[in-house]
Amino acid sequence: MEPIVLASGSKRRQEYFRLLGLPFSIIAPEIGEVPGEFKDPREMAEELAIRKVRKVLGYLKGRIPPWICGADTLISVDGISYGKPTDRNQAKEMLKTLQGREHQVITAVALYSGKTNAIDCRAVISDVIFSPLLDEEIEWYLGTGEWQGVAGAYRIQGLGSCFVSGIRGSYSSIVGLPIRELYVMLRDNGYSYGYPD
């Protein structure tokens, strides 16, 4: 199988690549988002995933790899997007907003093919239902530090699962990489996945 550059420092995405048996290397680009730049959460996730791929292409300066994969996950409540909290106070506000409500987790995947010099980008939207939370529960969770570096200030694959009463959609997408969608994108774009073409 051809190697893929994973444009992400996310441990969860790396774990999923290993689970799928995909050979990969990591280049984690730094990208910024401009407040108010996007109105639609799906558009925002897709554009940020594409920017990660383009940033890696820029780093490589003409040395084009066969494949680059970038992804971006964000939380949406009432049309407002939430990324990674910058500090504990912001994480606390996010958890207070999510508690007792349903929200959407949007993960966009951008796949670049060196053969076609094109980027295919798709997004998966899943619903997550949070139970009502006591202030003490929020403080306990913040104390674990698990909120750091993750959209919406919780990890569904960790202690954050204590607060989730239900999901509709793709669990792997909520974690950070929709496995089914990635597999289909690789297949649709001509990636040789170990079975005859």
CATH class: Alpha Beta
Low-confidence stretches: none
Gross CATH architecture:
Alpha-Beta Complex
Q: Please trace the helix and strand order, writing H or E for each element.
A: EHEHEEHEEHEHH
Number of strands: 7
Helix amount, in percent?
25-40%
Provide structural commentary.
The structure is a single chain. The chain has 197 residues and is of the alpha/beta class. It has one domain: Maf protein. The chain contains 6 helices and 7 strands; from the N terminus they run βαβαββαββαβαα. Helix 3 packs across helix 4. The chain is elongated. The two termini are 13 Å apart.
Q: What secondary-structure arrangement, pairings included, does this model have?
A:
Layout: E1 4-6, H1 11-19, E2 24-26, H2 41-60, E3 67-77, E4 80-82, H3 88-98, E5 102-113, E6 118-130, H4 135-144, E7 164-168, H5 171-175, H6 179-188
Helix pairs in contact: 3-4
